[in-house]
UniProtKB/TrEMBL annotation:
The keyword Transferase applies. This is Putrescine aminotransferase. Keywords: Aminotransferase, Pyridoxal phosphate, Transferase. Gene3D superfamilies: Aspartate Aminotransferase, domain 1, Type I PLP-dependent aspartate aminotransferase-like (Major domain). Belongs to the class-III pyridoxal-phosphate-dependent aminotransferase family. GO terms for molecular function: identical protein binding; putrescine--2-oxoglutarate transaminase activity; pyridoxal phosphate binding.
Amino acid sequence: MRGDGLPQALHDSQRYLDVVLKPQLSPTEAQWLIEKTVDNFTNYFNSGFIDYRKSVTEAGDYAAVEWTGRGATFKDALGRTFIDCLGGYGLFNLGWAHPEVVRAVQTQAAKSPLPSQELLDPLRGMLAHLLAEITPGDIQYSFFVSSGTEAVEGAMKLAKLYTGKSGFIAAVRGFHGKTTGSLALTGKALYRRPPLPLHPDIYHVPYGDAEAVEMQLRIAREVGNDIAAVVMEPIQGEAGAIVPPDDFWPRLRQICDAYQVLLIADEVQTGMGRTGKMWGVEHWNVVPDIMTSAKALGGGVMPVGAFMAKPEIWQVLNENPFIHTTTTGGNPLACAAAIAAIHVSLRERVAEQAATKGEYLLAQLRKLATQYSDFFEDITGKGLLLGMHFKDDEIGYAISAGLFKRGVLISGTMNNARVIRVEPPLVITRDEIDTVLDRLDDTLRSLRVARAGERNTDALVAVKDVAVAG
């Protein structure tokens, strides 16, 4: 592409900037943007997304290309409105473009978007202080990154530095990221197998089974495997909003203490109020040794993640502050967003909102699951991290696609193909929840009618075949 490509890039970048700077598009401009986006994804990003995305396959003549949003609703480039029940896989706890978070970022951008790397960055210190105030127990220190998988990688590294050990115990169907260290913890062969070998000394056990964790630690002790930490999600997100038994996390804490290994809570998806508590582990009054956070920490405006730990564990980083560094992680824009996100979350009591709205939504979904028991297996979750479990993948896709056609964005999970996640912004209104439930009911009713028609057609064909044979 070099050579003649540079003048063309100058022209194209101007065209793209014109779009970025426009608050609204004309119908012609919107159609151009959609066609260009599909072409760019196909030729320069990943054509597989075009084959997979409902926004392309179910959106009619023109694919749905996101444009703007507020609260729990967003519009595509053509002005079509959707209720968001996906929440950016946990990004949008505060909804789309929360004005206070946006204002904090815009104001900071006009002063100092990125740090000097040599002077002290005040916002980094402010955010670290706030996290010490809102995390459970005596967790005190934080290191900031730009994503959840980086946070998990940092937690793993910290655990190894502190313990001098290399092994980890994680859960089947757990999800911790897709860079090679965090991917080694992730409990799904579909993602782990292609890039093998990954980080060594990783042992997986069934989620929610504390006895299996203890058995693995006992075996490790007998055969000489050094385990640095047990890493678990408080509630498994990508596996389908799986809530463990009530004694699971308290038992994990006891077992880790008994075997002198660290307990790491991966709160990338469950943190910042998603499950009805500020942190998922607070449902069981457990204090981990190390925690991770990301996704909603940036208020749905900036990418920011963190791994956090108790002072005695953090001492290994204090002794050598350059043993783990980042150029852009925890930059002033990201920290400004996180500071604003924490403030709004506490002031608006979004964790309590998630608990109340989640209890209502969970009860209504269970009613629908009973009414349409031919489709559903179960409804699981806490707060507004819920999973609709279906009898097969085909049903899940049909319902997801049907809801999209009716203006509701929803999607499956990465580690359990039969589950559709229900993970809306925590600021979703009761009226919006009821609208989603009505559209889900309509989708289920239509699917039942369609399947009945297919069965009648199959039966008629069978009768004709018998008649011909006779």
